[in-house]
Specification:
This protein has 9 helices and 9 strands. The protein has 264 residues and is of the alpha/beta class. The strands form 2 sheets. Strands 3-2-1-4-6-7-9 form a 7-stranded parallel beta sheet, with helices on both faces. Strand 1, helix 1 and strand 2 form a beta-alpha-beta unit. Helix 3 runs parallel beside helix 4. The N and C termini lie far apart (53 Å).
Length: 264
């Protein structure tokens, strides 16, 4: 297969690109900086720049007749209180997590329609299903991507194109190095420091990126997809159905306990 993956300079994206390249697929990795690898071709691309995106896809199609798979993995985190978040930080986050993904989909869809075949995975988060404390805008950006994914499934199904959201729990990567962090004001400082330390410990104990690659490989083997798939540790995945069935107050109390917000 011909597979395009965004955000391949490190972390999950790099692991995915190398994994599928080793399996014999033709993999193109799009990220802002060139990445050296013998297993995939790196095309430096800022996915928030639509001109750059179109140029990258045109470059792929110089040598490939079809694009089988797009994995929209590029994204960033953002931490801080809602009150402290600036317009600039919010727009930067949504520009990458939502607009960049949409631009990538728009760029590959003409080829997928022409071939009446294609699969698109939008990498989301289990946190898109609930507003996480001090990660409200990250949750919101991924939730917005989920709703776009749901809408697109109706729009592209006549051409045998499958689209889904893959909601990941904490994965062991360097995501903490690339988060947008707002200035945390004094009223939130003590509780934020506690939640932030816990957040980073969850990432440090997260699932290995290789396991994500294996899960996606199995997903690509399915002919029909559901709109949403959830991958991560049980303690995080269980938060999704619990939100559906528990009273809001009960659920919030569980979330406070999980994030250690129930202790002074």
């Amino acid at each position: 297969m011909t597979i395009i993956i965004t955000g391949t300079s490190s972390g999950i994206g790099f692991a995915l690109a190398e994994y599928f390249g080793k399996k014999g697929h033709k993999v193109y990795g799009l990220s802002r900086k060139h990445t050296e690898s013998q297993y995939f071709q790196s095309i430096p691309t800022d996915v928030t720049d639509n001109h750059a995106v179109l140029n990258a896809i045109a470059e792929v199609l110089k040598t490939e007749t079809r694009i089988d798979v797009l994995i929209n993995n590029a994204g960033m985190g953002m931490v801080g209180a809602v009150e402290d978040s600036t317009k600039e930080d919010i727009l930067k986050l949504f520009n990458l997590n939502l607009v960049g993904a949409v631009q990538m989909m728009s760029a590959v869809l003409p080829n997928m329609r022409e071939n009446k075949l294609g699969k698109i995975i939008n990498v989301s988060s289990i946190g898109s299903e609930m507003g996480l404390p001090f990660r409200g805008f990250y949750s919101a950006s991924k939730s917005a991507l989920d709703k776009v994914t749901e809408a697109m499934r109706y729009e592209v199904y006549p051409w045998n194109i499958e689209v889904c959201s893959l909601h990941l729990g904490d994965i062991k990567t360097n995501i903490a190095d690339n988060r947008v962090m707002t200035q945390v004001s004094q009223p939130y400082k003590n509780v934020f420091d506690k939640v932030y330390a816990l957040m980073n410990s969850h990432v440090g104990a997260g699932t290995e990126p290789l396991e994500v690659a294996e899960y996606i490989e199995a997903l690509l083997g399915k002919s029909k997809w559901k709109a949403h798939y959830y991958f991560g540790k049980f303690g995080q995945k269980i938060g999704v159905p619990l939100k559906w069935i528990l009273p809001q107050g009960t659920y919030e109390n569980l979330m406070k306990k999980y994030n250690k917000l129930d202790k002074n």
